[in-house]
Amino acid sequence: MRPDATETILDLGGITVTPPVVLAPMAGITNYPFRALCRRFGAGLFISEMITARPLVEGREKTVRLAAFGPDESPRSLQLYGVDPHYVGLAVKRLVSEAGVDHIDLNFGCPVRKVTRKGGGAALPAHPNLLRAIVRAAIDNAGSVPVTIKFRIGINDDITTFLESGAIAEEEGCAAVTLHARTAAQLYDGSARWEAIAELKRSISIPVIGNGDIWVAEDAVRMLSETGCDGVAIGRGCLGRPWLFRDLAEALAGRPVPPQPTFGEVADIMLEHASMLIDWFGEPFAMRSFRKHSGWYTRGFHKSAALRNHLMQVQTMEGLKIALANIDRDQPYPERAHLVKRGKKGGTQKVVLPEGFLENRMDPTPLDGTAECDASGG
User: Fold this and answer.
1) What gap in Å lies between CA 186 and CA 91, rounded to an integer?
2) Contacts of 285 (CB under 8 A, 6+ apart)
3) Pairing of strands 51-52, 77-81
4) 303 — alpha (psi -120 to 50), left (phi > 0) or beta?
5) Which residue ranges form the domains of the chain, and what is each CATH number?
6) Distance CA 269, CA 242 (A)
7) How far is the C-alpha of 174 from the C-alpha of 214, rounded, in Å?
8) What are the DSSP calls for 150-178, one per residue?
């Protein structure tokens, strides 16, 4: 039986995460302003956008900029991706010594075709010795900084790797693992298979974080109860709904979930979010970046299609204020808006792998650098 909700915490190698709720990294989304907004609403841990090891080691400006944290950000949590133990080790050493990170999460869950066809991302765990070498290189260079890893169930229903990946993580000294309970073939389609989270939890002793299909607070409570996992990771469910973390904090503490915001309250959050992006990036880039968020925030409200068309053209903060000035501020939050698809596209795929990739699965040889991933998630 799980402990009382008020006692539920997640220990990541000395970092106490309470509530046990993690903002999952998402490319172009989980920058410092969005992390700070989610933190205000109650996320326990907020992971940066994923960066790739080799470009970081080589000092490429864009990658270094993605690794930036806010001055008040603590703990500093970052997701790293790499396919070569050498570069992963060097990247971790740099992040620990120069960026002052408090937590590093290694991503082995990216299902993007251009990555798996080179053997990277969600395909890489099918080569367990290479996986082990990468994890070991990270931990050897992390010092006291906890390292966690994220992965999927496997490549497809015939090639599942999650139990072996979990065992490797535990044996090499990872502080925890996160399982996105879908295969790479599923992409983001269908239902997450929470039973796999439960099976992984039974097989290892380090904390397991469950990921997949948490759209409302009750979903998180149910995942913890049904799987026995130690925490939950939230990705697409918080897009346009950062207050989901407030709802989760209340529900996991055994308190009633507050009412959902009115359209006017959502508009106020939109203005706050846009203002934070401007402070961090400057107005031109911030307002272009905010357009996708505008769509997520307003989805489902009555007669909001025309408003979204307008919001997609907004170029300034003043323009955003004007666009939102005449909304019905008292309109209640749409009852089923949380179920509207957001973020990644649906559909499944046939996972493309390098020729002969599955014939020599014990090969620890590092992959070609073209297997590197530039899109976080998984």
Assistant:
1) 31
2) none
3) parallel
4) left
5) 5-258+354-367 (3.20.20.70), 263-332 (1.10.1200)
6) 9
7) 25
8) EEESEEETTEE-HHHHHHHHHHHT-SEEE
If you compute the radius of gyration of the chain from its CA atoms, what whole number of angstroms results? 20
Q: Answer yes or no: are the C-beta atoms of 216 and 187 closer than 8 Å.
A: no
φ/ψ of residue 160, rounded to 5: -100, 140
Can you name the residues that pair with 148 across neighbouring β-strands? Answer: 105, 176
Is residue 210 within 8 A of residue 231, CB to CB? The reply is yes
Task: Say how far apart CA 313 and CA 108 lie, in whole Å.
Answer: 36
Global pTM reads 0.93
Helix, strand, or coil (residue 347):
coil
Alpha-carbon distance of 320 to 303, in angstroms, equals: 18
Where do we find the tokens 């204020």?
A: 321
β pairing state of 176-180 and 147-152: parallel
- Distance, in Å, from the CA atom of 174 to the CA atom of 327, rounded to the nearest integer, reads 49
CB 335, CB 84: distance < 8 Å: no
Closest to 207 (Cα-Cα) out of 74, 14, 6 = 14
Residue 81 DSSP symbol:
E
Average pLDDT, consecutive stretches of 10 residues, N- to C-terminus, the chain (378 residues): 54 94 93 95 90 92 84 94 96 94 96 91 96 98 98 97 98 98 92 97 98 95 97 95 96 94 98 98 97 95 93 97 97 82 69 92 85 64
3-state class of 77 per DSSP?
A: strand
d(CA 232, CA 211): 6
Q: What pLDDT, on a 0 to 100 scale, did the predictor assign at position 4?
A: 46
Q: Is 110 a catalytic residue?
A: yes
Question: H-helix or E-strand containing 105?
Answer: strand 103-108
Q: Are the C-beta atoms of residues 186 and 348 closer than 8 Å to each other?
A: yes
DSSP reduced 3-state for 28:
coil
**97 burial class (0-12, 13-18, 19+ CB within 10 angstroms)?**
exposed
Catalytic, out of 110, 174, 229, 238: 110
Structure tokens at 192: 């997450």
Contacts of 258 (CB under 8 A, 6+ apart): 246, 247, 250
**Residue whose C-alpha is closest to residue 229's, from 212, 247, 246, 254:** 212
Helix axes 217-227, 244-252, angle to 10 degrees: 50
